[in-house]
Amino acid sequence: MIVNKLPQKALFISLSTLFIILQVVLLNYDSTSGKKLSIMMESINKAEKENISLNQKIASISAMAVISEKAIAEGLTDQRKIVSLTSPLPIAAAKNNSL
Amino acid sequence: MEKRLYIVCFFFLLVVGFIWVKLFYWQVYSFDSLKSLAENQTNITQTLQAKRGRIYTQDKSVLALNQNAYLIYGQPQKIEDVKLTAEVISENTDLPLATISAKLSNTKLRWIQLADKVEEEKINIIQKEKLKGIGFIESSKRFYPEASMAAHLLGFVGKSTQGEDRGYFGLEGYYDEQLKGRDGILRQEKDASGNPIIAGNSEEISAKNGRDLYLTIDKTVQFIVETKLEAGVEKYGAKGGNVIVMDPYTGAVIAMASLPSYNPSKVSQYEEGLYKNPVIASSYEPGSTFKVLVMAAAINENKVSPDTKFNEEKSVKIGNYSINTWNHQYHGEIDMTGVIQYSSNVGMVFVERKLGHDNLFRYIRDLGIGSLTEIDLQDESTPSLRNENNWYEIDYATASFGQGIALTPIQMIRAVAAIANGGKLMKPYIVKEIHSENGKIITVKPQLVKHIYKKETASVVTEMMVAAIERGETKFLKPLGVRIAGKTGTAQIAISGHYDSDKTIASFVGFVPADKPKYIMLVTINEPTSSPWGSETAAPLFFSITKELISYYNISSTD
User: Fold this and answer.
1) Mind spelling out the 3-state secondary structure of B477-517?
2) What's phi and psi for A27, nearest 5 deg?
3) How do residues B509-549 score in pLDDT, each as one tens digit?
4) Tell me, what's the ipTM?
5) Which residues in B lie closer than 8 A to residue A97 (C-beta atoms)?
6) Which of A40, A64, A77, A91 to mutate to test the interface with B (most CBs of B within 10 A)?
């Protein structure tokens, strides 16, 4: 019986040792992932800030006052003239003598 | 020999016992406190700031968004050159040099806030100086690309008593809860270098960004209105003015402008009194523009018709008071269209007497005078409507031509819109859609408050208003070929229980085109000095804006 239990014990010890070694290897491998994650988060943050900054610039350039000034600088003038060929008569007022 | 062995054993047992006690103390008794201490050292808690929602116009142009900003802090114990540091910070933050100097000179402090919401460009300049003992914390600041355009509409973002960002006035105030979102929290285990430990503990509650608002405001119309209003106030030497443009069928506000105004990005540079939106919070006596509402009420109740005749020959005496026409001219026998055309005060007293006091009061109340319109802007207020028991004969008479009764511009335009749209009192609103981060859209639908007038009444009064424009004092101002319904108003200003003889509020209300109006507009000019009359100040401004809008909306004479 002692002879039969010996291979089982050896197997158990071997497997346990293997798992421990595996855990150590993986955790060790993972230990620098935090730094990589930090770098990625910084890049994302930087891109987001740049995005906000660009949106701000687009909004500023698209402002009505800016467009209006540029239009005037480019020589566009306001020469709107309303021309009407007919003067329509109101239907409801047709019966009203005062009109 | 044995005795010495026992003594040595005893001392060994003592030392071992001491170690066991200590181990027990650190590993069992102090377990919780030490664990907490360790967690505090390795676990970092970070607030994930929610982004405030944006505000867009009808055509998806942005009126309010966020920009990068920073909090500047100082560590007085690490500052090398206090004078230079203070000068650089003061120059780039507009804060007094003395204040910054005093803060940086206080070496008892380890950390002190110097300035908040400082823009990125300024931070870049400060960073170039490589100042020791100065640091920056990322933040966010509201940016209004159109500067002071639509300032009263937007409101601004300031600080609450807890030091958090909070919207005040206008849309920023009314929709603050929707716009601000909810900050999140990230609790993470970090190593000695501050890098996150992937396999460690991590808890996150994501930030929920604020919702975006899409308005009924048309940016181009808003710009036209603001430009013209500014020119008009200057031209007529006025203290200020308001213009509102609205869709009469839905109550959607297309443009809203008031002067004097302020820049919401630089709120602290303006007087607090300017923050209030006069369109929704300041009252005025409407004067003759109110006549169309009273006339509509009388026609609606079949008390008068357009053909009803009135003999306008002299003033009307009520008690100790005498009511005259505005220009002391009397036209003899006129019909109801003539009463509106000539803006006859005595004619309106006649109409009111036909309508009856009870009916007049009921229509005034039903038109929303004395009640909030519940427009979605913060800080709307209304003058109260006196209890009917406190109304006397003279009050009904003067109310018939818009004096002795006060309302806000938004109440006025909403009431006249009921004539423009066939008789419905609509709730005015500015936000038409609210967009969430997850794509969900809440649509705001137009709301009918009450049916006031019959369609036929609205048509008849519209024609009276068209006649008033085409045959009244403004006939040379209106553009040819487009039918415009409108009414001028000139109201004296009540000061200390009497009316000022010189100061007026000139106004004009009208809708274009008369038959199927694309918009209704109210113009009010406060205390114009070039002329007190609405026909010579507010009306020309109305038509000046209308000429632009006719072209913009492509309104033809057949509309």
Assistant:
1) CCCCCCCCEEEEEEEEEEECCEEEEEEEEEEEEEEECCCCC
2) -65, -35
3) 999 999 999 999 999 999 999 988 888 999 999 999 999 99
4) 0.78
5) 307
6) A64
